[in-house]
Amino acid sequence: MATTTATIDIPQPAERVWQLVGGFGSLPDWLPYIPESTLTEGGRVRSLTNEEGGVIVERLEAFDDRARTYSYSIVRAPFPVTGYRSTLSVHDLAGGRSRVEWSGTFTPAGTGDEEAITLFHGIYTEGLAALKKTLGG
């Protein structure tokens, strides 16, 4: 099993950041390469459409509004991994700032650990940079 984590500090209060990222269907609000998200099964499954028209289906596995964190798994995607589970969390920092952490675990399938780690680390890093930009950080 492989794992990767990306973090970014944002000069905004954690509550404000969570208001943007805490909705399971909110990716299009801050992630430019995901222009569409459709929720089904009472908001527990999201179908994401990427810029190329590809579809990624993910299931919400855990949600804690108070702790500002949620975890999800991939149901269907064009990624070379199995057993994917990811967590997105927002933490308070001093001075009205926050730290956002996006991590994932997965088993590479048809590719090496390093290639799969590089792929997801890039997705997380680019996504968090887009989040910071969206929030004016």
Keywords:
2 helices; 45% strand; globular; seven-stranded antiparallel sheet; Alpha-D-Glucose-1,6-Bisphosphate, Chain A, domain 4; 7 strands; alpha+beta; 137 residues; single chain
Written description of the protein model:
The chain is globular, with a radius of gyration of 14 Å. By secondary structure, it is an alpha+beta fold. It contains two helices and seven strands. A seven-stranded antiparallel sheet has the order 1-7-6-5-4-3-2. The longest helix has 22 residues, at 113-134. The protein starts with a strand and ends with a helix. The mean pLDDT is 96. The protein has helices spanning 14-21, 113-134; strands at 2-10, 36-40, 45-49, 55-64, 69-76, 81-93, 97-108. It has one domain: Alpha-D-Glucose-1,6-Bisphosphate, Chain A, domain 4.
The main β sheet shows up as: 7 strands, antiparallel
Categorize the overall geometry.
globular
Percentage of β-strand residues: over 45%
Radius of gyration: 14 Å
CATH topology: Alpha-D-Glucose-1,6-Bisphosphate, Chain A, domain 4
How would you briefly describe this protein structure?
This protein is α+β, with helices and mostly antiparallel strands and 137 residues long. It contains 2 helices and 7 strands. The protein has a single domain, classed as START domain (Alpha-D-Glucose-1,6-Bisphosphate, Chain A, domain 4, 2-Layer Sandwich), CATH 3.30.530.20.
